[in-house]
Write a structure and sequence with these properties.
The protein has 232 residues and is α/β, with parallel strands linked by helices. It has a single domain, classed as 3-Layer(aba) Sandwich (Rossmann fold). Helices cover 64% and strands 10% of the residues. The chain has a 5-stranded parallel beta sheet, sandwiched between helices.
């Protein structure tokens, strides 16, 4: 057996072990309750969800986690945020991820990324008083207030064209690609479908709502949720 075949066999065995560990981690994490008020924000591109999330964090004096999550994962895995972001935007098999990590140590294996992501999400939830943007928060933090922001496709395309100064076709392609990448990320790492409304406590269509009104709806639901939890 040549050296290349030995490397492939080693990577395959390690990938199988990592897959079993990943499933076990997800089962364990799902059993752990979140502590303190936490809002997870799932959003379609162009729905304004991230902006509402930042507004909520400012109004409620909550910590805001978006790119900060990637930076924390990068610190845990000794790489940079750009390589961590590839897990959210680039599709590759678990075995392919394993091979890339052998070739370039800055490439983090999927199971290492997932393990770090779960720890970061749980750490933020344990501290409480947090708004967490994306990264599978709704799939993992089942005790949080899970909010989904949506808007009609054409509305989102028009918004992105205006925000980023794009032509209509460029904005349309951006929205399509981002929607696909988000669904693929959640499916690959958590087995979740972002369009499944049963994942969320509140789904807000921002087509005819201002950011301020959307934030008000979330705040009202948060107060109701934590009042109910405190009374139970």
């Amino acid at each position: 057996m040549n050296a290349r075949q030995k490397l492939l066999d080693k990577a395959a065995r390690r990938w199988e072990i990592d897959q079993k560990l990943a499933h076990a981690m997800q089962r364990d994490e799902a059993k752990r309750p979140a502590h303190g008020p936490v809002i997870t924000v799932s959003r379609e591109l162009g729905s304004g969800g991230a902006s509402v999330g930042k507004m909520l964090a400012n109004q409620l004096d909550f910590k805001y986690y978006d790119r900060e999550l990637m930076e924390q994962i990068a610190a845990r895995t000794n790489t940079d945020a750009e390589h961590i972001q590839l897990h959210e935007t680039t599709h590759r098999s678990g075995f392919g991820s394993m091979l890339l990590s052998f070739i370039d140590r800055r490439n983090v294996q999927d199971t290492v990324y997932l393990r770090s992501l779960l720890k970061v999400l749980r750490g933020a939830a344990k501290e409480g008083r947090a708004v967490i943007i994306g990264r599978g928060g709704a799939c993992v933090l089942t005790e949080a207030l899970r909010v989904r922001f949506i808007a009609p496709f054409d509305v989102r395309v028009e918004r992105m064209a205006q925000i980023r100064g794009l032509k209509h076709e460029q904005a349309r392609q951006l929205v399509l690609e981002t929607d696909h990448a988000q669904k693929r990320f959640l499916h690959d790492f958590f087995g979740c479908d972002p369009d499944n409304v049963q994942l969320y406590d509140l789904v807000i269509n921002t087509a005819h709502l201002s950011l301020e009104h959307s934030a008000e709806l979330v705040t009202t639901r948060l107060r109701q949720t934590w009042h109910e939890k405190g009374a139970s």
